[in-house]
Amino acid sequence: QVQLVESGGGLVQAGDSLRLSCAASGRTSRNYAMGWFRQAPGKERDFVAAINWSGGVTEYSDSVKGRFTISRDNAKDTVYLQMNSLKAEDTAIYYCSTRSSRYGVTYRRINDYDHWGQGTQVTVSS
After folding, report:
1. Above 90 in pLDDT, residue 31?
2. Following DSSP, what letter does each residue of 55-73 receive, concatenated?
3. Alpha carbon of 94 to those of 28, 41, 101: distances in Å?
4. Is 103 helix (H, G, I), strand (E, B) or coil?
5. Predicted confidence (pLDDT) per residue in 82-107, tens digit
6. Residue 94: CB partners within 8 Å, gap ≥ 6?
7. For 50-89, what is each residue's pLDDT tens digit?
8. Residue pLDDT, tens place only, 9-25
9. What's the rounded Cα separation, in Å, for the pair 84 and 95?
10. For 123, what's the count of Cα atoms within 13 Å in the CB-facing half-sphere?
11. Strand stretches in the chain, DSSP E
12. Would you give the end-to-end CA distance of the chain in angstroms?
């Protein structure tokens, strides 16, 4: 059973930076894609960023493009989300997700993913 554990969330001011981490365990394959989603109070869970199995392909939502960077360290089985120039509207619970994939593609739909972490809260004060 694959388990994902997010960390790195917190309370910051607008313009600050945070780096989220998502550590995976229990995998039986090295070929998997990863994604980050977020859910603000009273809203649906939305796509933020995704990365393919090798780290060579990434994708971002328009709202974070140019400010957030997704990366991965396969040796540590960990994916990161570097968040710069944070805004109040970035406030949400951030979830990481994963699915098996050996292709050079990313996935941005919730239903594309098989496993999810418990989430980490990010709060940006204006």
Report:
1. no
2. SS-EEE-TTTTTTEEEEEE
3. 25, 12, 22
4. coil
5. 999 999 999 999 999 999 887 889 99
6. 6, 9, 20, 36, 37, 38, 48, 81, 119, 120, 121, 122
7. 999 999 999 999 999 999 999 999 999 999 999 999 999 9
8. 999 999 999 999 999 99
9. 18
10. 5
11. 3-7, 10-13, 18-25, 32-39, 45-51, 58-60, 68-73, 78-83, 92-100, 115-116, 120-125
12. 40
Q: Whose structure tokens read 């971002």?
A: 60
CB 23 within 8 A of CB 79: no
Strands 120-125 and 10-13, bridge-based pairing:
parallel
For the stretch 61-85, what's the b/e string if a residue is b when 16 or more beta carbons lie within 10 angstroms of its beta carbon? beebeeebbbebeeeebbbbbebee
* The residue type at 66: G
Sort 44 into a burial class: Cβ within 10 Å, 0-12 / 13-18 / 19+: exposed
Phi, psi of 84 (to 5 degrees): -115, 160
Q: Do the beta carbons of residue 97 and residue 32 sit within 8 Å?
A: no
